[in-house]
Amino acid sequence: MNNTVSITAKRQTTPAPSSEPATLGIPYARGQLKADQPLALTCQQAQLPLNTEITAYWNDGSVRWLLIKTLLSSDIKHGDLLTLAPSSAPSCSPAITLDQSPSGITVNTGSITCTIGKQPPLIAVTDLSTQAQLNQNIKLLTTNDQAAALILDDLKVNTQHPTHFCTIELAGHYLLNNTKRLNLSAQLSFYSNSSLIEWQLTVHNPAAAKHKGGFWDLGDEHSLFFNALSFDSQLHQTNCCQLQAQTDSEWFCDNSLQLLQASSGGEHWQSANHVNHQGNIPLSLKGYKLTQQQQEVCGLRADPIAHCSNSHTGINAYIEKFWQNFPKAVSLDHNTLSLQLFPSQAGEPYELQGGEKKTHRLLLDINNNRESLLWARTPSQLVLDREIYAKANTLPHFASSAESNALQQLINLGVEGDNNFFSKREKIDEYGWRHFGDLYADHETLYQSANEVPLCSHYNNQYDPALGFAKQYMASAKPQWLELFDDLSRHILDIDLYDTDLDRDEYNHGLFWHTDHYLDAGTCSHRTFSKQHLNVEHTAQSGGGPGTEHCYTTGLRYYYYFTGNLRAKEAVLKLNSWMQYAQEGTGAILERLLAIKTKDIPLLKRLNKGLAISPYRYPLTRGTGNYISTLLDSYYLDGKYSHIEQIEFIIRNTIHPSDIISERHFENIEQTWSYTIFLQALTKYLHYKVSENSFDKQYTYARDCLLHYAQWMQHHERPYLEQIDALEYPNHTWAAQDLRKAHILFEAYYFSPQPAPDYRQKAERFLHYVTDTLQQEPTRSFTRILAILMQNQHDYEHITPLIEHTEQATLAVGTYGPAPKLKRSGIITNIIKDLVKATLRFSYQREKKWLTSRLS
């Protein structure tokens, strides 16, 4: 099997003399690349520095996903082909060396040395060509304008085999007012023979929000407030300070320069999106202000590069997505270059909510060339041909051709037309350090009049648009999709995930879902429910938090594959733990006793009255489907087979091939429609079994459940909008949801052990209904509709039955008895089993934590 990969370099600007780092995730088919195979990266027969990391394996031990890191030299042009191929020798001689001691770590790249110490200064950098030195520190100001001391907790080398690339991780914390703790973590990346240092710097409030009454408004008593955070570099005897505010603009030169990006500079820069905890909009300046001595220059959106130097060396600095993550500032004052990530000039303290983070990416280049970071404004991309993704079985039914069918034309509205995802940002000014990257939930404005100010509503990755963006990029290589994917994924990791260990287990590390339907987010920001919604007539919701009905992990898994961002991998695994706590409980005896009172006894009473109750442990809903998907994503990341065993347990305790489907009451659409999401999760499991060539009884059971329900759908399902009397809000989101029915029926056609053209015909009718209906619908570019279409897009036109590819798939349909019935004895037996299990696993700490979290 050919394991040589061709990669295209796409460069949007003329390269500067310095080298530019580039990263790429590459999928491989099973058996295509052995894990121990040395590789070399070349361009026009010249070898490039290369570091590789395996981020996923096939079950035979071969590489499933490989992450490569390299440096693109200035002579690599737009459109040049790079070749990654097996090699018997390293691609280049290693340049990076490390020296670890109790006092810190020193990295030597061949161009600079950088010492990360446990005592001030935090960072000391030496230019090896001149031996000139500079020091760097991270400075936090409390609300009293006092500088808080950084206490370093951990310092380590993260790269397993540093040769041409190395990452150092540090973790520390600040104590605010001697009571509250603000965590700081950073990754420093170095490249061989390069003077570049790349920082990923994250601040984190590890506390749990108090969220009294289930409301998540700003101003929570466990929020952290601070006045400023800056990354400062001291270069002694500076004789030149320069700053360029935007691409191709003039360079300002002076002993003292300051640029403040106070707002987005957009048309709606004072949007209600930017309210603080008091409900006020604290923005007073449109765009940015650059101060030079006594002169001021104003503009809208800055993308600055700063430079200062002395007679020996210099430093160049760049903050990625500067204006988008306002407020931001850069100042150069004699011997100090300050990158102000949270500038004090904003005029009021910053609030970091419990479990909330913010990450900034900084680039520092130690040399005298002020243009060495110009590439950072439009970084190059390494691009794979779509055929590589298709042949590697990256996704089930991944499109292997670039045909633009009706469904694709609808999805393309996400980056084309007047209401694409980029233009949506402008409508409520979806910018600022907390908001940037999220998607504006414009569908929530559907019932507003045309002259009303649009609601501020946030989407928080519902229906996994992160995955949708990744799929679109793999299929088209359009950089807009990759940009959306990166922006959204970073936002999820920082803002949408509730990153704390100190709340209830069913909240810790969960994902906040979209803000409340058809209401302004107000002071709840991205956290779902606000106390401002209490007296609104049309909402029956009053409180809540992360919920299992709204958990989407697959996009984050692919973000890890694409970038190697370990936080994405950790987030998926933590979401899996959160889902298990929410679905299974914590295992505390007190918790189980409460469940007997609130769940089991009511079930027994319903049985005594002769009322119908479900015999299954898990409901046939999207929450259970999301549980399966999260377990499967976790398996792909950590390889623990216990995740697969849990999936199989869930399936058998949710659905049966002999179910009497009329008892599911699918005519109650509002309560039952999401059974389709469960069935889609079932197909993900089946595709996993096929990829492992595992056609066992678990496969057969799950497949027969799918076919049983698909047969019912074939005869009974019709478009939702033909049943508007059963819908609370009969809008065209329902037409998009009908694509799920098409997907399930296509999968039934694919998995059926005998020819089943009827499934395909019904599936095609639903598919054409969706596209024909939405093509005529003005709301077709709404965020929720596009998210659903992207999530459920597959290469439907080229799906062929599995029986045409493998004889194992012809396994006959299994023989099953009647579906289970719930009996009193069964309920009592389950109670006894659970209590025995909890007693055997008794932990005083678990009981105390469970009780304390409820009492608090």
Automatic annotation (TrEMBL):
It comes from the Bacteria. This is Ig-like domain-containing protein. It comes from Dasania phycosphaerae. Residues 1-21 have a biased composition (Polar residues). Residues 1-23 are annotated as: Disordered. PANTHER family: CONCANAVALIN A-LIKE LECTIN/GLUCANASE, TAT PATHWAY SIGNAL SEQUENCE DOMAIN PROTEIN. Pfam families: PcRGLX_1st (PF19501). Residues 21-135 form the Ig-like domain.
